[in-house]
């Protein structure tokens, strides 16, 4: 059994998904890339990738570390560094 609590930083990082249309993320440090099909950001817990369709950033406050996303959200995943991450980003953003 994995102990996720010990592997994640304890800084204030939180995700709140309402349906598949609204996502609020706290602990955002930087938005690296975004378009209507994907958003890549650095968070207190690592690199977070959100994919979907018609994605829009409704509110971004890097001072407060909060990001609101609207659109159809298909997936939310954390990526680790290294070769695997670069391959995923190439597939996502070509």
Write the layout of secondary structure elements.
Blueprint: H1 4-7, E1 14-18, E2 22-26, E3 28-34, E4 38-43, E5 46-61, E6 66-79, H2 83-93
Antiparallel strand pairs: 1-2, 2-6, 3-4, 4-5, 5-6
Descriptive keywords:
94 residues, alpha+beta, 2 helices, 6 strands, globular
Ends apart, CA distance between termini? 35 Å
Low-confidence stretches: 5-10
Given the helix and strand composition, which structural class is it?
Answer: alpha+beta
Helix segment count? 2
State the shape. globular
The averaged pLDDT comes out at: 82
Strand order of the largest sheet: 1-2-6-5-4-3
Quaternary structure: single chain
- The number of strands is 6
Rg computed from alpha carbons, rounded to a whole number of angstroms: 13 Å
Secondary-structure element string: HEEEEEEH
Main sheet makeup: 6 strands, antiparallel
Task: Estimate percent helicity.
Answer: 10-25%
β-strand amount:
over 45%
How would you portray this structure in words?
With about 90 residues, the protein is of the alpha+beta class. The chain has two helices and six strands; from the N terminus they run αββββββα. Strand 3 (about 30-35) and strand 4 form a beta hairpin. The longest helix has 11 residues, at about 85-94. The chain is globular and about 25 Å long.
In short, what is this structure?
With 94 residues, the protein is α+β, with helices and mostly antiparallel strands. The protein contains two helices and six strands. The protein starts with a helix and ends with a helix.
């Amino acid at each position: 059994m994995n102990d996720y609590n010990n592997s994640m930083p304890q800084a204030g990082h939180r995700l709140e998904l309402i349906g598949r249309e609204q996502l609020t993320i706290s602990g955002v440090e930087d938005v690296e890339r975004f378009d209507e099909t994907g958003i890549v950001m650095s968070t207190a817990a690592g690199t977070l990738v959100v994919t979907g369709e018609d994605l829009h950033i409704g509110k971004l406050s890097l001072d407060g570390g909060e990001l609101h996303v609207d659109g159809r959200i298909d997936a939310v995943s954390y990526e680790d560094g290294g070769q695997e991450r670069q391959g995923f980003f190439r597939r996502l953003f070509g």
